[in-house]
Design a protein that fits this description.
Layout: E1 2-11, E2 14-20, H1 26-36, H2 40-44, E3 47-54, H3 58-69, H4 75-84, E4 92-97, H5 101-111, E5 114-116, H6 121-129
Parallel strand pairs: 1-4, 4-5
Antiparallel strand pairs: 1-2, 2-3
Length: 130
């Protein structure tokens, strides 16, 4: 069974969801991501934006970001993930990459997604941020 990694990126403007195209052998993949994360063209060859949801207002953005920082799944995040995260199948298990272990634990508890915040995930998030 293969694993498909999708990464949640929280930004002041909204939520982004990115698919990592080749995350099979993570131990070999981390150095590769580190070497290309500052080159947008090369980085785009392994990471693809699959969904974006802008916040409705400044107040809405603040509510969402405060919830994230407290490890709480805001209803906007819940709807965004439920709508956009691919479903796991017999052929491919979907893993959701997150920046923080607390929000990962909450997402796993509320939505049942397998979450990861280590290995290649911080490098992918660093590349997205760059």
């Amino acid at each position: 069974m293969s694993t498909q990694l999708v990464v949640l990126f929280e930004h002041a403007s909204g939520y982004g969801l990115f698919r990592v195209k080749e995350a099979e052998d993570v131990s070999k993949f981390v150095p590769h991501v580190q070497s290309i994360q500052t080159d947008p063209i090369k980085f785009q060859s392994i990471v693809e934006l699959i969904a974006f949801s802008p916040f409705k207002s400044g107040t809405n953005a603040l509510d969402n970001i405060n919830s994230i920082s407290e490890g709480i799944v805001h209803e906007d995040l819940h709807l965004f993930l439920e709508t956009n995260v691919p479903k796991s199948s017999k052929k491919a298990k979907v893993v959701l990459g997150v920046a923080d272990s607390r929000i990962g634990a909450s997402i796993q508890e509320v939505l049942g997604y397998s979450c990861q915040h280590t290995e290649v995930v911080p490098e992918v998030i660093r590349g997205i941020r760059y």
